[in-house]
Amino acid sequence: MRAYFAFTKKELTEYTRNFKLFLAITLFALFGIMNPLTAKFLPDLLANFMPKGITILIAEPTNLDSWMQFFKNGTQTGLFLIVILLSGMMAKEYEKGTLINMVTKGLPRRTILFAKFTGALLLWTVSYWLCFFITWGYTLYYFPDGTTENLALAVVSLYLFGILLIAVLLLGAVLFKNAYGPLLFTGAFLMVLFLWNLFPKASEWNPLVLASRNMDMLQRALLLADLQKALLTAALLTVSALLAAVKIFKKTGL
Predict the structure, then answer these.
(1) What is the mean pLDDT of residues 37-65?
(2) Number of domains in the chain
(3) Domain, as residue range, for 186
(4) What is the mean pLDDT of residues 21-39?
(5) Name one GO cellular component term (predicted).
């Protein structure tokens, strides 16, 4: 355990030195501020920029519009950003050969991978929940009368999907000793999830629903009972990706 905590500390230190932690926190904090601001003032901006003589009817913004922006930025930009930042989590280690000395001195390979996963998970956790709490605070400020049901389910679902992507990205980082391979591998995984939805009877098992139907969760069109199969699949895929990464890493050269 001591080696695990030491290597995890090393990962977090590197995230600080290469500014990945600063970049992730800054951008996710910016998202958190922009989500409610966009919902609040976008109708006024659209009205001001419309040509004279053209009138559009826009409903009064609500707190749901703020959370719509949160999930839009979280899935389209936030997850993409995290995957980009973490795509080279193993590439530099392979390039510099820093893992050779550690392994020859007795550091278990699974410890290296679990420490890598923990560091990446902490980066995602801090960034994501910072964005959430900032959005939550500003949403309460701008829309004090709004009520949001099932918010915890919607937010946690997207967070869990992010954990799944990190596990898949780590597996890709073990399979390919560069920064591009893991990106392509994760993209291929997402493509499989999208194709999965072509089969209606199997779509309820698709973990993609955790990141694509969050607004349905807020509007109670999708409840926890409806997500049990998708959550189970996400858990199994996460564990399977981690176990596969450990097994492959034990056999691969450094």
Answers:
(1) 66
(2) 1
(3) 2-251
(4) 92
(5) plasma membrane
